[in-house]
Amino acid sequence: MEFILASGSPRRRQLLEQIGIRSFAVRPTDADESLPAGIAPGAAVELLSVRKGEAARATADPDALILAADTVVALDGAILGKPHSREEAVSMLTILSGRTHQVYTGVTLLRGEAEHTEHEVTSVTFRPLTAAEIDAYVSSGEPMDKAGAYGIQGLGALLVERLEGDYFNVMGLPLCRLGRMLSRFGLDPLAGGTGEEMP
Questions:
Q1: Is the pTM of this model over 0.70?
Q2: Which residues lie closer than 8 Å to 58 by C-beta, 6 or more apart?
């Protein structure tokens, strides 16, 4: 059975390999990422992960198992996507400074006509940041392709004072939840050992 990751994220590839899934095809999609006005963050990531998964399914083998995911940062219920400019990255980090926000990841698994979607939420608190610290972090280039303008697995770890929930969710793939979801499709990463028996 072919396993397809419908994402170009190197972090998601790394996390799949971490749980023993080492043989999979990477097939990012160009699914529509527009959102209805006022949609809640949890509903938004579920909708986007479904769109990505269904776009991948359209060109995949019917027996393939497809994993799609989408991650957003939300502050006071308002979604922060990826910054489109240096100024936008500075603005996002400035409003996150010294405050607690939420990271939502929607996860969709599809195989044939079977489809299952869930989402995970993690609360993250930033320490207060100076303008110079924000400028230095943005100058590193790390924020520019990441929701909320930071990456916890890189220099962004220096911004995080406290976290409540799944750390891996903040990286873009909630592994505990994913493991339970995979079991619905007959896969048990714990039983997969080194991954040689996994798809």
A1: yes
A2: none
